[in-house]
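#struct-help
A.M.: can someone run this one for me? Single chain, 185 residues.
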Amino acid sequence: MRISKSLLDRGWAWSTGLGLIVLAALAGMDLWLKSQTGVSTTDLQELSSAAQYRLAFHAWAPEPYAVRAGFDLGLDYLLMPLYAISFFLSGVIVAESFTPGRSPFRRYVLMAAMVAPVAALLDAVENALQLTMLLSGATDNLARIAFNVSSAKTVAITVGMVLLIGAIMAKFGLRRARARPVIEP
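D.P.: on it. Structure tokens below:
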């Protein structure tokens, strides 16, 4: 399947822009939750035992905090497809901009782009496990699984961020370099 360059650029710009907006809203709400309770939903990524989860959930015991925590975890599901698309399209942009022809490096970059959807799937599993523990009670097995899934997701998101930075460099760094006039002695 082929995609036009303009459609690729538009999809990348929209998914990245909307992703940043949702991320900013989510971060703001998560910071508010942390300021009120001492625990944010982002902090759950570092927890690996049922006792740690129980302490976090105890901090959210008053209803408004539990509702906010559940909303934050749910809103993260909106962010997942946005960053998956943004990171994937970033990989395509990096491959098109920095890799010549059919080189092995180009294949590696395109394979790295496939990590983005994996990150979103891992994030969905992580949130589902955390919501399950929030609603049904935490167990050590679920806590360990959530911790391992979160660690794998963090690696996958890091790969996606590298691709996003590469795409930004391709879009804005090369454009400035090309716009400079050539001065010959």
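A.M.: thanks! Residues 5-172 form one domain.
D.P.: also worth noting: Residues 30 and 40 are 5 Å apart (CA to CA).
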